[in-house]
Amino acid sequence: MLTRKRIAALAVTSLLLAGHAVAADKKVVAVSIPAADHGWTAGIVYHAQAAAKEINAAFPNVDVVVKTSPSATAQVSALEDLSAGRKLDALVILPHTSEELTTPVKAVKDAGTFVTVVDRGLNDPSIQDLYLAGDNIAVGRNTAKYMIDKLGGKGNLVVLRGIPTVIDDERIKGFQDAIKGTELKVLDIQYANWNSDDAFKLMQDYLAKYPQIDAVWANDDDMLLGVLEAVKESGRKDIKLALGGNGMKDIVKKVIDGDAMTPVETPYPPAMIKTAIYMTVANLIGQAPIRGNVKLDAPLITQENAQEYYFPDSPF
C-alpha cells in the first residue's frame, strides 16, 4: 500500500528529473471532473486547478486543461469538446457515473490517448492505463477499530450511509467486518445521501428513537456536520464518539484541536486528483512509465499527524 505523500513525491521527482528534456511538441493533458456540487467535489476542483496551474507554469511544453461538468451527460459532451480538433496525449477523468462514461472514454483511448481514471472506475477497466483511488474498505475498517478500542468493544451505534454506490458499500463492509465478534451493536443504518441536511434530519430521528447511543458513524464528513449539529441541539450527553470520513478541513481541525467527540478522522482526500495529474504528466515527460492500479492508504488522522492532512485554503 502506498501513501498519498509517497506517491506524490515519486511523481514530482519524476517531473523534476525530466527538467528541460520535454519534447518540443506541446503535450496536452485533459482533466475531466464533476463540478463542485458538494464539499468533496469542490475539493476535487480546487486541487485539479492547482495542479494545472503549477504544471503549466513549470513546464511550458505541457498544457493541462481542466473541464468541470455538472452531470454525466455534460461530461460526455465535455470529452467531445476537449478532443475536438486536437490530439489529447492524456486524459485524467473522475467519471460522474461508470456506465455513461465508459464508452466515451474508450473512444478517447482508441484515438491513442493515455487514460488515467480516478476514484469511480469504468465498467471496462481495460480502458484505463492508470487507476488511482482511496481505500474505502480501510476507511470503514480503521474507523471501526478505533471505536472498538475507545468503547471497550461494546456499545450501541447508529450509522449513516451515503448513496447506493460501490464506494458506500465498501466503506460499510469494512466497518461491519471489523465489528464482527464484538459487543458493538448497530441499532440502525440508513442512507443520508452524503448530505448535511439529510444527515441532520436522520440523526434527529435516531435521537428520538433510541434513548442510549454510544457512538455515531457518518461515513462522509458532509453528513457528520449534520450529525454534530443534531447532537448539539438535542443536548444529549450519552454520545461519546461521532466520527466521519474523507478528510474535510473542518473535521481535521477538530482533530487538531483535540475535540472529545471527534478525536480522529480517516482520509479520502480530494487531493488524490492532484496526485493523479502529476503521475500522468510524469508518465508523459519523465521517462518513467507508470501503469496499473494505485490505492491510497487510509491511516487514522490523529492529533499527532493531522497537520499533514490539513489544507485550510481548500474549500473542503
Automatic annotation (TrEMBL):
Pfam families: Peripla_BP_4 (PF13407). InterPro entries: Peripla_BP_I, SBP_2_dom. Keywords: Signal. This is ABC transporter substrate-binding protein. Residues 29-287 form the Periplasmic binding protein domain. Transmembrane segments: none annotated. Its main location: other. One of its GO terms (cellular component) is cell envelope. It is found in: Cell envelope. Residues 1-23 form the signal peptide. Belongs to the bacterial solute-binding protein 2 family.
